[in-house]
Amino acid sequence: MDFDFTWLFWGLPLAFALGWGASRFDLRQWRMEGRQAPKAYFRGLNHLLNEQQDQAIDAFIEAVQGDPDTAELHFALGNLFRRRGDYDRAVRVHEHLLSRADISRKDRDRAQHALALDFLKAGLLDRAESALHKLQGSAFEGEALLALLGLYERSRDWPQAKLIAQRLEDAEQGSFATRLAHYLCEEAELAQRSGDSAKALRLLEEAVQRAPQLARGWMSLSILRSQASDASGAFDALVRLNQNAPQNLPLAARALVELARQTGREAEALKLLQASDERSPSIDVTEALASLSSGTEAVRDRYLSHLEREPSLVITTQWMAGEALSGPVAHARVQQALEHASAPLRRYRCAACGFEARQHFWQCPGCQTWDSYPARRVEEL
């Protein structure tokens, strides 16, 4: 039977036409999808710039569905979820990225870092710690160590905080001597509460050697020696404080006077306090000097001397306590009014966040910043 080449003549053009039509259809569909994904991406970016996070998230979800292989869209979406407090969805996005086998090592480390931030923001400290440890040896190691340091400070795990701070200092990420000294002081307080005074003393001596400019170490050492009935050693610690951190002597002025009386070193304490007063008038130093003065007139003159150099409602209150008004009732009322008005001025204020407190803190309870409280009251700032 002879083959009819007529069918071949008509079939080849037909097959070519069908193939061309199919390719055109696929190309058109691909171009349509390609146009839709960038449009969704730019729409999400526009919402983000206008601080419309909910609309931006919807647009990025649409873009991710159109192009699920784009890692950048996943990162943008995960960061948006975290910023709006939707930590569960942020975690799912970044865990999905980590589960993919086709992303680069750089993107994998980036996803691991983002996942650790998700856990930190969500308050899942154990999972955040585990995620941060996995970033060792990556480009995010420095950031991870700083995050771990903050995490251990929040959980008050001072031994681990010391290890991380030492690693950061060894890696030349900055000086962490002051922080390390604070951690040693915190450990010393815990040891003292548990009754291990020897360990507390050893830790405080290490703290003042590591950071002699830190007033906390000398003050804590003075308190510990005083509790051990070593008043002379406690006084010497405050003398060393004045040598290394003279701007912080007002914090120890009252304790200095008490120890001076116990050891008979009032003249030495008076000299130190007068030198501090000459450098910069201070409410605490003036009150300490007044307590060392003999006689009502000397105390009155001490307060007036302060007021001549620096107006102070607190010192005025102290001065008024020794003045006679028109009668005891009037005197009591004026004194009470002055004390009420001056009470807020006795507070300390954090230089970082403005948090005010009646007592001086080494670490701000509001923003967790170390050494952000000046040694001067609110009225003196």
Automatic annotation (TrEMBL):
Residues annotated to bind Fe cation: 350, 353, 364, 367
Main location: membrane
UniProt keyword annotation of Repeat present: yes
Keywords of this entry: Cell inner membrane, Cell membrane, Iron, Membrane, Metal-binding, Repeat, TPR repeat, Transmembrane, Transmembrane helix
Subcellular location: Cell inner membrane
Domain LapB rubredoxin metal binding, chain residue ranges per copy: 348-372
Residues in compartment: Cytoplasmic: 24-381
Source taxon at top rank: Bacteria
Membrane topology reported for the UniProt record: Single-pass membrane protein
PANTHER family per record: LIPOPOLYSACCHARIDE ASSEMBLY PROTEIN B, TPR REPEAT-CONTAINING PROTEIN PA4667
Physiological role: Modulates cellular lipopolysaccharide (LPS) levels by regulating LpxC, which is involved in lipid A biosynthesis. May act by modulating the proteolytic activity of FtsH towards LpxC. May also coordinate assembly of proteins involved in LPS synthesis at the plasma membrane.
UniProt cross-references to NCBIfam families, sorted A to Z: PRK11788.1-3
Sequence similarity: Belongs to the LapB family.
Protein name: Lipopolysaccharide assembly protein B
Species of origin: Hydrogenophaga laconesensis
